[in-house]
Specification:
With about 550 residues, the chain is α/β, with parallel strands linked by helices. It has helices at about 25-35, 80-95, 100-115, 120-130, 135-160, 190-205, 220-230, 245-250, 265-280, 310-320, 335-355, 370-385, 420-425, 440-450, 465-475, 515; strands spanning about 40-45, 45, 50, 55-60, 70-75, 170-180, 180-185, 210, 240, 260-265, 290-295, 300, 330-335, 390-395, 400, 405, 410-415, 430-435, 455, 455-460, 480-485, 500, 520-530. The strands form seven sheets. The chain has a seven-stranded mixed beta sheet, with helices on both faces. It has a five-stranded parallel beta sheet with strand order 9-8-7-10-11, sandwiched between helices. It has a three-stranded mixed beta sheet with strand order 1-5-4, with helices on one face. β8, α7 (about 220-230) and β9 (about 240) form a beta-alpha-beta unit. The protein is globular and about 85 Å long. The protein starts with about 25 loop residues before the first helix and ends in a 15-residue tail after the last strand. Bound molecules: nicotinamide-adenine-dinucleotide and 5-oxo-L-norvaline. 5-oxo-L-norvaline binds next to loops. 5-oxo-L-norvaline binds near residues 327 and 328.
Length: about 550
């Protein structure tokens, strides 16, 4: 029973701590890293009120130090998936009817726990488990997840406040019911914030969730579950299963109570999921919501009027931060002939000073890629570029995996516009540059628009406003997040709602009203205050 119309706490984005030498946050984080490295932990599945440990233990190691053991996670089975569905549906009976302010309070508390007592622990887990440096962890596993949790509470209230008009004698109302069934959240390895938000957003709107994190993100996923529990999330509302994707999918996508998928990951996996849902469509009680944010082949277009230093900096940060493992990473750049030599010189100078190594040494800008499979895939593109006549390596190109999965930040110059590394998502520290005739700006734009099937992020660097307007208009469908004189990464919740269309997903903009609307099934209610007692229209002699 809600007995008040409540406001929610005002939000601003969580300030990013800087971890400068001698700062208190650096001291806490260093200690958390040391403590985590000094022990091994066992991570169970969290299903209903149970922590499930299995016989199938899988090791967890830092990608930059793969001989070191951080612990194990306990892989789940098809039986565990069924158990999770039962636990979720049982929890739904109470959760779906709990007042919204109670749900809000849980997630606001989770945000405060991460902002305070859990900040160092979740950042350390992200640094060690996913090989992120302190800054990249801070903007992800602290600030972005906190922003998701707090801002979503505000968006929820905005949604609930959206009410229809009423005519004389009538009171119309709108209820924003949770979906009838359970939601399946499948999350990628590269952002702890996404892993937390994908189950939390539907749960905030009153849904129950089965969450399957990527195996390579389980170490920080475990901290998220600890936070949710400490924040008071009732058992069974979010169930973390550690079954393999296809094993889980095989059970979940055939279940009649499956009501929605909240996915972030590669385009291919999302296409498989969508197809499976389509094949099973007649077996569901309700049409499932399908929300998926997927891959990118994000472009940077420079005009001949661009500032070369701003462009070079945007490319270095956009392409190589977190080893290029962001769906938003600048992975293809179109540079006019008048700027190329200078931009190349500036990038090479930056790359000379950039250090790569473990996350424990805060002076490393770059760390390792996530696992051996990713290492082999990324280096395959580099090895091919070394041999191809259509491409040349401008910077980097070396790699080694004896201690960790390290790949030098690599710049490839392609000599044809459909060279493979200009078209396919590589998801690693590889930037491909195509140098175009400075007088053919308008001709290069349709090539950018059609070179890859994706449309996630893109950027224009120019000082000429006509060029900026031209690119904005002619690349209108090429990116869901478009940047002017900035790198195409680093969207902030509430400031640049994130997501793309075409092969990049359903563009439901995580961390916005648009996303939360996918997790409700509104019921419109009309109440007539004094009901008519006569069927006749006035012209028939009625009232
Ligand atoms: N658009 C975005 O907002 C966004 C954000 C982050 C990452 N990404 C994309 O994610 C990808 C990188 O992440 P990843 O390597 O973890 O992606 P991935 O597609 O390999 O895995 C994503 C998740 O899907 C699961 N999965 C894999 N096969 C499955 C199946 N058959 N059925 C059910 N689940 C299955 C994985 O275990 C994991 O949890 C990149 O393509 C990147 O662009 C997109
Ligand atoms: N939202 C993040 C990217 C998430 C995908 O990996 C950014 O804007 O850089």
């Amino acid at each position: 029973m809600s007995i008040g119309i409540f406001n929610v706490p005002a939000v601003r984005n969580e300030p990013v701590k800087n971890y400068a030498p001698g700062s208190p946050e650096r001291e806490l984080l260093t200690k958390a890293l040391e403590e985590a490295r000094a022990k091994t932990i066992d991570i169970p599945q969290y299903i209903g009120n149970q922590e499930i440990y299995s016989q199938n233990k899988r090791p967890i190691s830092p990608p930059h130090d793969h001989q070191h053991l951080l612990g194990h996670f306990h892989e789940g089975t098809a039986e565990d998936v069924k158990l999770a569905i039962d636990a979720a549906l049982e929890a739904r009976k109470s959760w779906a009817v709990l007042n919204w302010e109670q749900r809000a309070a849980i997630f606001l508390k989770a945000a405060d726990l991460i902002a305070g007592p859990y900040r160092a622990e979740i950042n350390a887990a992200t640094m060690l488990g996913q090989s992120k440096n302190a800054y990249q962890a801070e903007i992800d596993s602290a600030c972005e997840i906190i922003d998701f949790l707090r801002l979503n509470v505000n968006f929820m209230r905005d949604i609930y406040s959206q009410q229809p008009i009423s005519s004389d004698g009538v009171w119309n109302r709108m209820e924003y019911r949770p979906l009838e069934g359970f939601v399946f959240a499948i999350t990628p390895f590269n952002f702890t914030a996404i892993a937390g938000n994908l189950p939390a957003a539907p749960a905030l709107m009153g849904n129950v969730v089965i969450w399957k994190p990527a195996f390579t993100q389980v170490y920080s996923a475990n901290v998220i579950m600890k936070v949710f529990k400490e924040a008071g999330l009732p058992d069974g509302v979010i169930n973390m299963i550690l079954a393999d994707g296809p094993v889980a999918g095989d059970i979940i996508f055939k279940n009649p109570d499956f009501a929605g998928i909240h996915f972030t990951g590669s385009t291919k996996v999302f296409q498989t999921i969508w197809k499976t849902i389509g094949e099973n469509i007649a077996s569901y009680k309700t049409f499932p919501r399908i929300v998926g944010e997927t891959g990118g082949k994000d472009f940077v277009l420079a005009h001949k009027s661009a500032d070369p230093k701003a462009l070079a900096t945007g490319l270095i940060r956009g392409a190589f931060e977190y080893q290029g493992q962001k769906c938003s990473a600048a992975s293809r750049a179109y540079i006019p002939s008048n700027l190329w030599e200078e931009v190349k010189k500036l990038m090479l100078a930056d790359l000379q000073e950039i250090k790569m190594g473990g996350v424990e040494d805060f002076s490393n800008f770059l760390n390792a890629v996530i696992d051996e499979r990713a290492f082999d895939k990324i280096t395959g593109y580099i090895a091919k570029a070394k041999e191809d006549n259509d491409a040349e390596i401008v910077a980097g190109g070396d790699f080694h995996k004896s201690k960790g999965y390290f790949i030098q930040p690599t710049i490839i110059r392609a000599h044809k516009t459909d060279y493979v590394t200009l078209c396919e998502e590589i998801f690693g520290p590889v930037l491909t540059v195509y140098v175009y005739d400075e007088n053919e700006f308008e001709e290069i734009i349709p090539i950018i628009d059609s070179t890859s099937p994706y449309a996630l992020t893109g950027a224009i660097f120019a000082t000429d406003r006509y060029a900026i307007q031209y690119a904005s208009e002619h690349l209108v469908n090429a990116a869901g997040n478009f940047y002017i004189n900035d790198k195409p990464t680093g969207a902030v919740v509430g400031q640049q709602p994130f997501g793309g269309a075409r092969a990049s997903g359903t563009n439901d903009k995580a961390g916005s009203v648009l996303n939360l609307l996918r997790w409700v099934s509104p019921r419109a209610i009309k109440e007539t205050l004094v009901s008519p007692l006569d069927y006749k229209y006035p012209f028939l002699g009625g009232q």
